[in-house]
Amino acid sequence: MKERLISFLLFLCALVSIASLAIITFFIFQAGLPLIFRVGLGNFLESSLWNPSGDPQSFGIAAMILGSIWVTLGAIVVGVPLGLAVAIFSAEIAPPRLAMLIRPVIQLLAGIPSVIYGFIGLTILAPAIRATFGGPGLSVLTAALILGIMILPSIISISEDALRAVPSAYRDGSLAVGATRWQTIWRVLVPAARSGIVASVILGMGRALGETMAVIMMLGNALQVPRSPLDSATTLTSNIGLELAYASGAHRDALFATGVVLFVLIMILNILANIFTGRVTFWQRLSAFRPAVFNGRAAWRRRNT
Amino acid sequence: MKRQHSQLVAFAGLWFAASLTIVILAIIIMYILAQGLPYVNLEFLTGRPLEQGREGGIFPTILGTLALGAVSLVLAVPLGVGAAVFLTEYTRPSPLTTIMRFGTDSLAGVPSIIFGLFGFIFFVTRLHMSWSLLAGGLTLALMVLPTIIRTTEEAIRAVPVAYREVSYGLGASRWQMVRTVVLPNALPGIITGIILSFGRAVGETAAVIFTAGTALNIPTSILSPTRTMAVHFYILAVEGISLQKAYATGAVLIISILAINVLANALITRSVSRAVRR
Amino acid sequence: MLFLTKARYMRIHIIWVSILLVGALTACGPTTQGNDQQLTLTGSTSVGPFAEQLAERYEEHHRGSKVNIQALGSSAGIQAAAEGTVELGMSSRHLEPDEEEQLQVYEIARDALAIIVHPSNAVTDLSTEQVRRIFTGEIANWREVGGHDAPIDIVTREAGSGTYGAFEELVMDKELPAQSALRQGSNGAVRQIIAGDPDSIGYISLGIVNETVKPISVDHVQASTEAVMSGQYKLVRPFLFVQRKNATLSPLGQEFLSYVLSPEGQQELVQAGLIQGADAQ
Prior knowledge:
The structure holds 3 protein chains of 3 kinds.
Chain A: H1 2-39, H2 41-46, E1 50-51, E2 58-59, H3 62-93, H4 96-111, H5 114-133, H6 140-150, H7 152-164, H8 168-176, H9 181-192, H10 194-210, H11 213-219, H12 236-243, H13 249-277, H14 282-285, H15 295-304
Antiparallel strand pairs in A: 1-2
Helix pairs in contact in A: 1-13, 3-6, 3-7, 3-10, 4-7, 5-6, 5-11, 6-11, 7-10, 8-9, 10-13, 12-13
Chain B: H1 2-36, H2 42-46, E1 49-50, E2 55-56, H3 59-90, H4 95-109, H5 112-126, H6 133-157, H7 161-169, H8 174-203, H9 206-209, H10 229-239, H11 243-277
Antiparallel strand pairs in B: 1-2
Chain C: H1 6-32, E1 37-43, H2 47-61, E2 65-71, H3 74-83, E3 88-91, H4 97-102, E4 103-117, E5 125-126, H5 128-136, E6 153-157, H6 162-172, E7 182-184, H7 187-196, E8 200-205, E9 214-218, H8 225-229, E10 236-244, H9 251-261, H10 263-271, E11 275-276
Parallel strand pairs in C: 1-2, 1-3, 5-9, 6-7, 6-8
Antiparallel strand pairs in C: 3-10, 4-8, 4-9, 4-10, 4-11
């Protein structure tokens, strides 16, 4: 009897946990979809006129979508080469002690609250960019540079795992036929780890796309389609964060509708990442936070079988 | 010769990238600490803020952060551990577990502002919780749930099958086995998940600001609005209320995160060394 | 070591029990000592800082009372008061007709909007028309209004904020700010951007102006309490507390409201740079 009750309770825990995702999805869509239907999906996505306090109101998020794309791609341009380089370094050429040092550094980088990154962008980088290149300083460039650093942990740890997972026969074979270590890395290991690396990039994009408060601080939030990296812009997330507190009525609905678009984009990225890796494990997603204890799991398996 | 040369260049680049990453991290941390630590003292940590934080300390925000983290964990830990036990010990892989896994994985990838939107429309507005510890805690609980479920699952899987078999062999029921063998052995892993979740609660702003609010008072009940350290830092920094206090709050934040990381790592190392000893 | 020794088993048990205990305490602890009185005000980020100051002062005189201020925006405050989520909402804009039907309004103060620039900026006066044309982007260089040769960085507020609403009504004449205008979420944030950017212009509450920025005169009138009282300075908006009609305030709510409207409360607000409200006693 007691056993039955306990297994039922545990089942209930599992059910509630999964139901939460369904409930979140349901409520976001319920709050946002009616407005999308009223405005028209095409209009909502293609118009760049956002004037919720006007008469008549107009809700077009094209400028924000483009802002999100600019900033996300910018972060990728900054973060991917650096992150991939660190991953290769750490997996292949770092002295073991240094490699041991890099993991906690990455963990810490992932743990620093995003508002601190935003603050650095706002107080150090933005004035420097204004002084060097002109413009308002709060710009796509500022946000991309800082977001590029913020996505490093995802990129480094997932790529590093992918590189380490390449069977050592590949490495040995390549070296045996006379390739240098660098040729082996670049021509054999990186291509072999390609799917994991691509997944790391996609998940990094997800992180950049989803970041909110730091972007509000660094991007200046102008409602325009940016034409240069020195222009200010608004992203889907930063507009929600900036306006939610003030919004009421249709304006609030429009922010939830923006949330719907963001939600769909993130889900597409998740599915893409899944396709590229077969299955991105949860730990890869939590990337930098993967505790070493679970590496012991494989060892256990070996010992127990 | 040319091949050696290009390898040299490439390796130099890799060394450079790695050092750059470490240097960037060092700069961020050192900068905030150097600017902030001189203003961190007992008064700052235990005093209440005056003039919206221009003067005084950050005590209410420290309490707010702890309380919010505690509320979210109290809600998420039993649920998450229960769900993980169910998934690993009470079912075989099935469509249900696949859906669950997809669900938790997706939940982990959802940006925090979406959680903020949800908490705002559902807990704050629909359920009339207003901006409160409870609404914020519930929102954060949903956010950390995937972390707790998956850390617990992994930790449980790391418990050798032989342990279970011996326990069954001695006549234990399933729950007795779980309670006396699986959970105790998985405990370090579970605690690691809890600590990491707490870290997320400490650093989060987007989901918290719209659900727990920004009130600067010491929360007195589960329905009080509150302001966490990260939110306080955000407001001080963005509104230019006081850069000095912003740096000081930032320094306290960074040290908290450092401490949480060190704690998590220490636990991990301990459990690994124990695993190896066995 | 296949089985847990008894000692270790006990220890682990203790850890679990203490986790649960800590959890239970944090969950239940605070609610049991809830005999203090609490009041929460929600609304305008412009009113927020001043309300916070009043709350601080009020709590000093009334130990055991807690007044929480949630600065989330005028619309949020109006809505929360109308829905009954909070007793009192704060607004820095006039109510819409449909809102007015549901709510009782108290004008606790009036606030002037100051047009601010970087302290190094040579421009000291602009006409309302010039301000409007700067914000619409028609005037894009400081040179055109007698300043230095540099493109103007416009800083505005986000749609829905009371300050934006007031500026829209008082200056913009139905026109939208230029698309390149930076948007910030509060008076303080605007001030911070202006203080750091020599080419910028923005608008904030007169009470928030400090030495890091320079307020300029509009139509040759410098923003000041006197100029507002005499009616010379035109960029003025109300600070309101709103309450659901026919709803009775809690004793604490009633008392706090009376304090805000009392001479002491008004004195506080005036010292902070605001102007006495129409409903002051």
